[in-house]
Amino acid sequence: MFFDYRTIPFAWNLITAGYIEQTVYGAVISTIGLLFIGKLLEPIWGSKEFLKFIFVVNFLTSVSVFITAIALYYATMQEKYLYMPISGFHGVLSGFLVGIKQIMPDQELSVFGIARIKAKWLPSLMVFFSVIASFFTEDSAAYLPVVIFGTYMSWIYLRYMQRKVETNFKGDPSDEFAFSTFFPEFLRPLVNPIAAIFHRMLCGRSETSNEAKGYVLGGTPLPGSDPIEASRRRERGARALEERLAAERLAAARNAEDLKDDASENV
Predict the structure, then answer these.
(1) Domain ranges (residues) in the chain
(2) d(C-alpha 109, C-alpha 241), whole Å
(3) Whole-model pTM?
(4) Tens digits of per-residue pLDDT, 205-222?
(5) Taking the CA atoms of the chain, what radius of gyration do you get in angstroms?
(6) Segment Disordered: which positions (predicted)?
């Protein structure tokens, strides 16, 4: 974990904080999330890219949270922002949900057997419920910025930095993965102009720079940079999820048959 007042002389805390949980519950949730979601993302991204994603998102999230805490201290002059312990894997877990959104956005998932939602809304719901919970919990500043920046930094990485082995291009410029897709339809007309400003200012990805970097040539998208590649990626993700669910159903059926045979033998 890191405390803001000690991070400057011990800068490596920005790297290690994300891998240290302060509670047993946090460690259990992080382990389950890593194992379950990792089985979906790692086969598609590859082990090297999967580990790189964890490292980059964790580091960028820690840096962003550190800067935010310093800004809150100078804005409020409350020393708690300097002495508040901040750590945990939940920033990367939030980033994993963004990866799920990118790979299988239209895959429907069951929520406690009560409702079904599309995977593309998982990151947005994670941030939304974290914000709601912050009104009813103390020291929400210790986890809420981590969740928000974990979600945003993972999108930045997948949108602009992740290199696709099959095409050798970086990022995912498809419209289905635009920043406004994290918001409901009625808010997107308000979000798009703001996102476009930061798109040019922070990422330098104007239409001209896209053409210069190889995303388009003569107005025609190159392989891997158009919706076709995004569709292929979603198909691979959906196929990986279906194979995993089929394997789990087969294992459950076999266990049921074994129990039935054991019961018959006992009789």
Answers:
(1) 4-266
(2) 10
(3) 0.74
(4) 444 444 444 444 344 444
(5) 21
(6) 215-236
